[in-house]
Amino acid sequence: MGPLVPYIFSNEFSLVIALLSGIGFGFALEQAGFSSTKKLVGLFYGYDFTVLKVFFTAGVTAMIGVLLLSHFGFLDLNLIYVNPTFLWSALVGGAIMGLGFVIGGFCPGTSVCAAAIGKIDGLAFVFGSALGIIIFAEAYPFFETIYLAENWGPVLINETLGMSKLAFAFLLTAIAFIAFYFTHKIEDKVSKRQSNFSKKKIIVYISGISLAFITLVFITITPSKEEVIASKIQDPKIQQNIVFNEVDSDALAFEIANNYYKINVIDVRSPEEYEAYHLPMAINIPFDELGNRQWHKVFTQNLKTNYFYADDESLVRETYVWASYLGESENFILTEDTKIFKEKFSPVIKMPSGDSKSEMDTYIYRKDLTDKMNVLVEALKNLTAPVKVKEVKIKGGC
Amino acid sequence: MKSKAYMNPYLAGIILGLVLLGTIYITGRGLGASGAVKSVALSTITELAPEHTENTTYLKEYAENYDGPLKNWLVWEVIGVVIGAFFSGVLSNRVGLQLERGAKVSEITRIGTAILGGLLFGLGSQLGRGCTSGSALSGMAVMSFGGIITMMAIFGSAYAFAYFFRNLWLK
Fold first, then answer.
1. Looking at chain B, which residue has its C-alpha nearest residue A180?
2. Distance between CA atoms of A208 and A97, rounded to whole angstroms?
3. Which of A363, B46, B75, B79 is least crowded, fewest Cβ atoms below 10 Å from its Cβ?
4. CB-based burial of residue A332 (10 Å sphere; 0-12 exposed, 13-18 middle, 19+ buried)?
């Protein structure tokens, strides 16, 4: 599941990806004509809207692709970098950049492209942008107030507009196509040309437009991977058909005391309940957080057996179904709740007063395991705390 | 030999969009450009005048979590841009020393305005935390509010100022 860095590729290897992405980026920009200022500034004088066409097409393509990948569970949207919003610096900085665009005729990416094919003005622009960055760094105290004002964090535009991601995607795609149509009309007018579209071209354009919308409709009407799993684990029929591996407290306690290194004991209750009391060696993965990436490995490994428990039987069964869909780990559920476990295995349990041998045996068995588990918990205090997998927020930026 | 025509803008846009999508899928972040210039410019200063970096808030903060340009994602990406653009230029026969300028504009003026424009863009990209590619394009792909308003500010302001600089570009 994406993003692949740093989970699958290392950060160092990502530099190779950077080089490759850059090659694609530079190639597309240069092919589109972004190495020519005349083509770039055409946008502002109405004779050439290439920038708008390329820019919007790229944005819409990537946006729909991001939605599609996350729909199928290939990309975790919680982990991708979303530029934070600092309202005033975004607006003022943007305005300064716009002025620089009209005067210089480039933006940083396109100036690099221009310089790469030998344009001296492109090189001059790159030099200028280095100067501008240095000036900003030197004059930072002057800009600081506005630079840090109105920090809204990584808000999404659809949230700000109060709509779903998909609704915004539809809206932006529609705006893009309308803009393509009208800018084409404007180009015709300004450059006094009469454009004829061949039948083939018209078919290609209509297919492109349809493809974008059909993809969005597809994402809207089909359930996402998460929804499919969620509906499966709620489905009583599936729950009936699945063979649950079950253990009782005595068996689980034996495993904990003797095979602790081969098992994961997983508490799917809330953190508060976990704090109040939990089984020895248990880690806490609240039911709602099962899907979080940091736990992914727990469910997809096949080296250790997972034992789930909660005080609610249906909850623990849902977890079991969920885990069996997700991965290869061998899973068990504890059929008894934590109260029973606590009663059976606490240091204060009393020796039976009667003479029944079986009662005595049970007492000794449980006392033994309790002591063993206590020793383990003490010895492994630092190890049992769940290893916090740092959710590395990817740093982006430009 | 005449240079080849530019690619159909929609096709180029789709290619660019797929490159962007691939980058987001693999690395979780979008494309950028000004950050690479920043990395080179600021680390040059740090190398030449380490004391100065210590005394300048913005430089100091930048230098603290920084391993040098060769460990920087954006620097490698922009090296890629140079390679990709050069390759495209060679394919389409557009490589060669040249200076593109409006008919009324002298060469000196053009170089001067390119530097000035770059300067403004560089400064603005620091204030706005990203330029056209990092903020606007990548921001649009992930629906960042900040990225999209930066985009609107860039193009809005460019339209607002375009009239005053028409002599630079139009005949």
1. B10
2. 32
3. A363
4. buried
ipTM of the complex: 0.95
Task: Calculate what percentage of chain A has a pLDDT beyond 70.
Answer: 94
Put simply, whether A385 touches B (Cβ < 8 Å) is no
Q: A249 to chain B, minimum CA–CA distance in Å?
A: 43
Whether residue A318 has pLDDT greater than 60: yes
Residues 6+ apart with CB under 8 A from B33: A107, A108, A109, A112, A398, B74, B78, B81, B131, B132, B133, B134
Q: Quick one: DSSP state of residue B44?
A: H
Sign of the dihedral through C-alpha B85, B86, B91, B93: positive
Best probe of the B interface among A31, A87, A168, by most B CBs < 10 A, is: A31
A28 and B CB contact within 8 Å: yes
This prediction's pTM: 0.82
Cβ burial of A382 (10 Å; 0-12, 13-18, 19+) is exposed
The whole-number pLDDT of residue A113 equals 96
Q: A86 touching B, CB under 8 A?
A: yes
Residue A270 near chain B (CB below 8 Å): no
Q: Tell if the CB–CB gap between A23 and B80 is shorter than 8 Å.
A: yes
- Is residue A394 predicted with pLDDT exceeding 60? no
